[in-house]
């Protein structure tokens, strides 16, 4: 259940734009970030509220403005966390966005969270008209692949205790903002 949506122009996005510039090695211009964020709507989620469900096609992209999100899937009959997003994280469900297939994962808010939601149609149109945006999204995709491999080697390695200690070491923001 999605709570009320708000237009993006009601928010100060200075800090968010700085965080977005840290998402990959390419630093987009203020104009590019302004044009991206202008397409979005802010949606508020409560702690543990589901943002996207497994088995559903979700083609919107999400940018974490405030809070923490967690992606989970099923490993056999056990739910497992496969990733976290903190302010400045861009989340795209690749199965749905690229292949129009249902998501294999659920996305939920770990604490009170504000997400900027942008439709696939708007992003596609923006990428067709913004060469800098297109290049930045390529760098984001490559960085996402790198981060996945890096996370597998650092955070998801070892026993449950070692994995928790790796979260404390490599992702302290998540540990400090998600209730036990």
Please tally the helical runs, counting DSSP H or I stretches of 4 or more residues. 7
Mean pLDDT across all amino acids: 87
- SSE succession: EHHEEEEEEHEEHHHH
State the end-to-end distance: 24 Å
Structural class: alpha+beta
| Strand percentage | 25-35%
- Percentage of helical residues? 40-55%
Q: What's the count of strands?
A: 9
Instruction: Name the overall outline.
Output: globular
Numbering strands along the chain, what is their spatial order in the largest sheet?
1-2-9-4-7
Detail the poorly predicted runs.
none
Radius of gyration: 16 Å
Largest sheet: 5 strands, antiparallel
Q: Your description of this structure?
A:
There is one protein chain. The protein has 180 residues and is an alpha+beta fold. The protein has seven helices and nine strands; from the N terminus they run E-H-H-E-E-E-E-E-E-H-E-E-H-H-H-H. The strands form two sheets. Strands 1-2-9-4-7 form a five-stranded antiparallel sheet. Strand 5 and strand 6 form a beta hairpin. The longest helix is centred in the C-terminal third of the chain and has 24 residues. The protein is globular, with a radius of gyration of 16 Å.
């Amino acid at each position: 259940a999605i709570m009320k949506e708000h237009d993006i122009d009601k928010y100060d996005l200075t800090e968010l734009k700085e965080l977005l510039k840290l998402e990959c090695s390419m630093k987009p211009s203020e104009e590019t970030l302004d044009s991206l964020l202008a397409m979005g709507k802010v949606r508020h989620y409560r702690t543990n509220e589901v943002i996207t469900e497994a088995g559903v096609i979700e083609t919107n992209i999400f940018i974490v403005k405030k809070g923490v999100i967690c992606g989970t899937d099923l490993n056999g009959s056990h739910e497992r966390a496969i990733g976290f997003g903190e302010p400045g994280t861009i989340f795209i469900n690749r199965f749905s966005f690229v292949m129009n297939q249902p998501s294999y994962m659920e996305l939920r808010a770990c604490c009170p969270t504000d997400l900027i939601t942008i439709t696939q149609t708007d992003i596609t149109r923006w990428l067709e008209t913004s060469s800098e945006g297109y290049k930045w999204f390529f760098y984001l995709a490559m960085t996402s692949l790198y981060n996945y491999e890096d996370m597998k080697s650092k955070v998801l390695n070892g026993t449950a205790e070692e994995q928790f200690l790796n979260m404390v070491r490599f992702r302290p923001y998540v540990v400090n903002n998600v209730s036990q």
